[in-house]
Design a protein that fits this description.
Helix 2 (about 35-65) packs antiparallel against helix 5 (about 125-145). Helices cover about 80% and strands about 0% of the residues. It has helices at about 5-25, 35-65, 70-90, 90-110, 125-145. The chain has about 150 residues and is mainly α. The chain starts with a helix and ends with a helix.
């Protein structure tokens, strides 16, 4: 495993751990408590920041590799960064639902690189699969909190 992979793995584990910690705190609170609403707002903000980050990564990868169909990745990345800004402007429950949906959509786009529907040589296979798993995990945590 090279240094880049270690850094990405560390960032993924830490970001997922922060969201899981926030979710764990929220699960233990009653729905009608004020702390619950504040916690949902914090979780929604973290989800928005992480959505912006995972949306921006394909932009950088597309610029760095100049792969065929990279322009689609740049456009889609910009859309996800815009959705992240939209998430930050919603109320917590709606923002968590939008973040959950967007993270799942981004996971599907990561997987779409493998059969060649998008630029297959944009990133290594381990990265696209790992990013998709990370996004699904974050989406599940956002949905769990929103549902309760």
């Amino acid at each position: 495993m090279n240094d880049t992979a270690r850094v990405l793995l560390t960032a993924a584990v830490l970001s997922a751990a922060v969201v899981a910690m926030l979710a764990w705190r929220l699960v233990r609170l009653e729905i009608d408590e004020a702390e619950r609403l504040i916690g949902e707002l914090r979780l929604m903000q973290w989800a928005g920041v992480l959505l912006a980050a995972v949306g921006a990564i394909p932009i950088g990868l597309a610029v760095a590799t100049a792969a065929p169909l990279a322009h689609l990745d740049i456009a889609l990345g910009a859309i996800f960064v815009g959705i992240a800004g939209f998430v930050m402007q919603r109320d917590p429950r709606e923002g968590l639902l939008v973040a959950c949906t967007a993270l799942l959509a981004h996971a599907l786009l990561d997987i779409a690189h493998r059969p060649g529907w998008l630029a297959a040589d944009l990133a290594p296979r381990w990265y696209t699969v790992g990013c998709a798993v990370h996004n699904v995990l974050l989406a599940a945590l956002c949905f769990l909190i929103r549902r309760r």
